Amino acid sequence: MNPMPANDADAPRVPGSPDTSTPPAAPVILSNGPGSFARAVLAERHPVLIRQVRDAFPLGPAQHAALDALLAEATEGVIEPLGADAHDRERWAAWGQGYFGRSWFDVPFLWAESYFYRKLLGALGYFTPGPWHGIDPFGPFKAAELAGKLVDEELTALDDLSGRPADVQAAALLLGSLWGNRADLGFRIDSGGAHESTALRADSGLVADESARLWSLLPVGGGATVHLVADNAGRELIPDLVLVDHLLHTERAAEVVLHVKPQPYYISDATMSDVIHSLRRLAHAPAAGYAAETGRRLWAAMADGRLRVGAHEFFCAPFPYSAMPDDLREQFAAATVTVLKGDLNYRRLVGDQLWSPTTPFAERTAYWPGPVAALRTLKSDVITGLDRDVLTALEGSGEAWRTSGTHALVQVDDRSR
Ligand SMILES: O=P(O)(O)OC[C@@]1(O)O[C@H](CO)[C@@H](O)[C@@H]1O
């Protein structure tokens, strides 16, 4: 993995790389703050997740023992390196330099979460040749969501768009994709909410809306290449795919590259197998409807290469995107615009740090090699790019606006590099 770009003074250094940075401008988020969101994720969300995985699978004794060990390590113990036989032991040994032997709560939140998911997969035998190799530990949760009636309702609601002007469809589908980010299975563990339909939600609830700048990058017939960095499967990926179809068939984009995770991550994050399940769900929707048409067109776009899927290993790395490797940077440099979905991608885009909320978004994305947009519902403490009056109203609302998933944003850095 590459070292941090030398000009990004604010992002945390990749362990093992030369330290060319100056001290961070904003505190990196750790998980040791009493009552903090990050602490609750490690202390509460992760143990619940381990219990849910135990309930969902007929695990054997070795897997239960490995989960017991992970639970104890991650909640009360210190960070231990991967086992001697792990295929990625060296990589994580470098990535975790300075962290091993310390409490999980005292290292960067972003790093600790990522390592937790790596260790969870390892405990279940995901990487080990044998019967559990490649079994998605979150597969049952994802499958139940995809088969659920909310997806049926959301697909049926798309029929309302038929015959509407293209710009009305575009605006509705962008909001559908944005609010789809609320349907995040990890988030549901402790939010108690986010179950309602996110289909074509009309109220904006946006704390920043720069969608006009996004559309101006994508004129009809402009031959754009759009990269979409996906977040969750199921009820988020379906509206993402519907948006992708709209871009392609209205010729706002000539080609789209959809980036997914190379392995299961953050519970519901989309992998290639989730893309396949979602495309099949669309294609098998009631034949005369908008959803089925979308499925057919996307199937064809995959076949002729206008829609491609990538699964770079960096999407499961525990670092901000400012540390992305050259091959990924080159891909994004060639994009007309890259759209990043969701909360985790936002944290990685701007840096998982406690920025002043009025820090300009484009200041934090200056390192990105091309135009970049974030579509995100707010589910963690990180925020940039707010107008001062919006911030004042949010702070005065008494709501947990940063973490409740009730607010969302579209932020765009449209500068060409
Ligand atoms: O990226 P997503 O799916 O929008 O959100 C991921 C998330 O649920 O996971 C983290 C806590 O585990 C938070 O950053 C955020 O709430």
UniProtKB/TrEMBL annotation:
Gene Ontology molecular functions? metal ion binding; phosphatase activity
Per UniProt, residues of the Damage-control phosphatase ARMT1-like metal-binding domain are 42-387
Q: Which GO terms describe its biological process?
A: DNA damage response
Known catalytic reactions: beta-D-fructose 6-phosphate = dihydroxyacetone + D-glyceraldehyde 3-phosphate; beta-D-fructose 1-phosphate + H2O = D-fructose + phosphate
Could you tell me which Gene3D superfamilies the record lists for this protein? Uncharacterised protein PF01937, DUF89, domain 3
* Keyword Signal tagged: no
> One Pfam family, short name please?
ARMT1-like_dom
The cofactors named for this UniProt entry are: Mn(2+)
**Keywords, A to Z?**
Hydrolase, Manganese, Metal-binding
Q: Which InterPro entries match?
A: ARMT-1-like_metal-bd_sf, ARMT1, ARMT1-like_metal-bd
Q: Has keyword Hydrolase?
A: yes
Renumbered to this chain, region (Disordered) spans 1-26
Alphabetical list of SUPFAM superfamilies matching this protein:
AF1104-like
Q: Which PANTHER family match?
A: DAMAGE-CONTROL PHOSPHATASE ARMT1 (PTHR12260:SF6)
Family note: Belongs to the damage-control phosphatase family. Sugar phosphate phosphatase III subfamily.
| Protein name in UniProt | Damage-control phosphatase ARMT1-like metal-binding domain-containing protein
Whose protein is this, by species? Streptomyces pristinaespiralis (strain ATCC 25486 / DSM 40338 / CBS 914.69 / JCM 4507 / KCC S-0507 / NBRC 13074 / NRRL 2958 / 5647)
